């Protein structure tokens, strides 16, 4: 599931190119079809939430960023020069970046764009604090969530303008672990800072590995509390896990009716 931790890990895969000059580029999207990045050096591979940022330089004063978004099905993979590009169909390739140590191939990428690095804010400036970033600001994340107290917490957590990096998996797992029903209004969440802190700790606990676990187990079928477990018993109480599709993002929600009971919003003044 390409959430913030997966994107951070993907940026580390692209670190293979960092410090090396691109010998050839092959873009397979119309708006970048004639773009030639040969001669450009990869200065840094970074991420913000679910956005990948490959920063390139050529000479002093010239810096561009290749931005991509994985959404649900995108991926970057690296191959040795001359190695066959396996794992995904060739028609899904959107870009290939060739360098001496490796070839980085982007499959089914979304929102692929090349912008001056100084203008990255045009693409990511609207995002909230990055859960995987060095500049993580929990107070800002809490403030952004609290700005709309009447919104359902499940929708608020998925809104990347509040905190960047949470997807459907971590949304469901954070809410379960905090005992909060998905349809609780933000203003009724008992301890919003604790929820934000838990989200930060969960994503970062999976830093550097591809298996996403919130239970602590890496065994297949044991990695999640409620996510994709509808119809099965809750690991804590045995109640059947429920599933519903809808909300602001029309996404699937999983929850335990017993461990995450419905609560009434606090009365107004």
How does this structure look, described?
The protein has 269 residues and is of the alpha+beta class. It has helices at residues 4-14, 121-124, 138-146, 153-158, 168-177, 192-205, and strands at residues 22-27, 41-48, 51-57, 63-69, 75-79, 93-99, 103-107, 110-116, 242-246, 251-255. The protein has a 4-stranded antiparallel beta sheet, with helices on one face. It has a 4-stranded antiparallel beta sheet with strand order 2-3-4-8, covered by helices on one side. Helix 5 (168-177) packs across helix 6 (192-205). The protein starts with a helix and ends in a 14-residue tail after the last strand.
Question: What is the gist of this entry?
Answer:
By secondary structure, the chain is of the alpha+beta class. The chain is 20% helix and 23% strand.
